[in-house]
Amino acid sequence: MARLQSTAPAKVNLTLRVLARRADGFHDLASLVTFAAIGDTLTLEPGAALDLAVEGPMAAAAGAKAENVVLKAARELAERIAGAKLGRFVLTKRLPSGAGLGGGSADAAAALRLIAQANDLALDDRRVLDAARAAGADVPVCLDPRARLMHGIGDVISPPLRFPQLDAVLVYPDSPVKTADVFLAFEPGRSRRKTVYSEAEIPTERMALLRFLANEENDLEPAATTLAPAIGEARKLLETTAPRVVRMSGSGSAVFALYESANAAANAASEIRGRRPDWWVTATTLG
Fold first, then answer.
1. Beta bridge partners of 136
2. Of 193, 192, 175, nearest to 234 (Cα)?
3. Within 13 Å of residue 210, how many CA atoms lie on the same side as its CB?
4. pTM
5. Which of 40, 93, 107, 138 is catalytic?
6. Which of 11, 40, 107, 167 is catalytic?
7. What is the model's pLDDT at position 1?
């Protein structure tokens, strides 16, 4: 079988509400999630022994091979499908690790898509979905990367939303934070809204969506900024570039800004790069 390839796009939490702490210690969330036009690339040589090679500009930060979620996802699916055809993966890593952009989850989801393709499985096959949930909380929403509402611990996702393209800049201020540490530092009283989203309240027109997003928040941002003050610095720099929305994504530490045009986003990215050449900065589209 020929080599297979899939893109693992960056996941951006445009909003994030922390609703309640669960009995198991996790938190119920409500988030509007979308995906960027940039990401990692994963290829699979089907039939070879299960293995992984990592390359690309962010390969050094990808961690030990044995702990990579690509292999974890592959093994989770293999446990559910007797005789599953696996193979050798090559991951080209372009997204920073520890940034709250779902890079690892997107990589794991791409691995499941490729194995499903190699074994003639549909993405909605129960075994694929179960493997995604076992691989990580954010993997199910990345399995079919389209804008959605995400609830629960990330395991309850809506059907794809009608979603306009948004022009954005993503900034990673080279200051990783651990999700567990952010939740430990989180103060429940900081949450302004304690309700889930409904599909009907998400605008489908671009300017209306930007206005909606401007009134939303990421409840984890204050806690993450305490742990990594560079998040606040990135936000302040982005706010000087006349965006419509500036917010941290996920549990951090990446920050995104939304603009009225692609030209405005490109100019903002150029300005931020000039001021902080040590940061990861990119203009992209979300949708």
1. none
2. 175
3. 17
4. 0.94
5. 138
6. 11
7. 76
